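User: I'm writing a tutorial on reading structure tokens. Could you give me a worked example: one chain, its sequence, then its tokens, then a sentence or two explaining what the tokens reveal?
Assistant: Sure. Here is the example chain.
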Amino acid sequence: MPHLIVDYSVNLEDAIDMGGLCECLRVVATGLDAFPSAGVRVRAHAAQHYAIADGNPAHGYIDISVRLRAGRDLAVKKAATQALFDAAKAFIAPVMATRPIALSFEMRDIDPELSPKTGTIRDYLEN
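And here are its predicted structure tokens:
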């Protein structure tokens, strides 16, 4: 873990490279000591139906949530939150400068006793 989930309004697809945003977040996340690279997952889902603020169809949003196993101290989570939020903000800044976009971010812990895991990715990593 962590899992980074990007939820966004579909009206941003032609303006923002969402695959590129996922890759940007992956690079930042795997560079953080707090996150084991084998556990990083980044995915994006477009909301086909949404309503924002005053209903103007030009409004868009990107909401990034990070789910990770409990156990990291608050300072580590704050630093990771800031690094990932800053990366997302910089990535979308050119588009955000030209149209209304809301960017939000949330990191939350997952109870390890209620979240079993298994996998073989670590067996295939080059490092």
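What the tokens reveal: The beta strands are 3-9, 41-47, 60-69, 101-110. The radius of gyration is 16 Å.
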